[in-house]
Design brief:
It is a single chain. This protein has one domain: Ribosomal protein L5 (50s Ribosomal Protein L5, Chain: A), CATH 3.30.1440. The mean pLDDT is 86. By secondary structure, it is α+β, with helices and mostly antiparallel strands. It contains 4 helices and 5 strands, in the order αβαββαββα. It has a 5-stranded antiparallel sheet with strand order 2-3-1-5-4.
Amino acid sequence: MNITPAKEKYTKIAVAEMKKKFSYKSVMAVPRIQKVVVNVGIGKIVKENDKIEEIVTALTAITGQKPVKTKAKKAISGFKIREGMEIGVKVTLRGARMWQFIDRVVSATLPRTRDFQGISRKAVDTGGNLNIGLKEHMIFPEISPERVKHAFGMQITVSTNATSQAEGLELFKLLGFPLKSE
């Protein structure tokens, strides 16, 4: 089995440090990452199939998994959205693919971002989940900028089973996420 550096950091360093800092009685009580969701909104280009296909192809290359199209749950007349209309594309990663994606984001993608100062501590919510918004998908090493016809942004959500923002911040810090210092 192929163990990634992020998973190894979690099992060897993060679990022990978190157990000591938050005085958990069991290893199973230590917060862990449950899933990573990569989401792209296609609201403005909903009728342009060639651009949507480019997004699906790029998201497949970035995550290694075929994306699912998301539909609107309710109609919003101000945005010209009807119920059931396709308004986004998302990928939910779990297991080995999740750990590989986290490795690539932390070690290769975020350092390639122009003027990157670190992830804001406010990006971790009260439930201990991390939300990162990226303006361009071209910062991923899997994407060749010469072939890109249309740039798009995306949101990456790293969901944990942490119960507080402090637990989430500590977990992400121990996993090597480049968080801004206070």
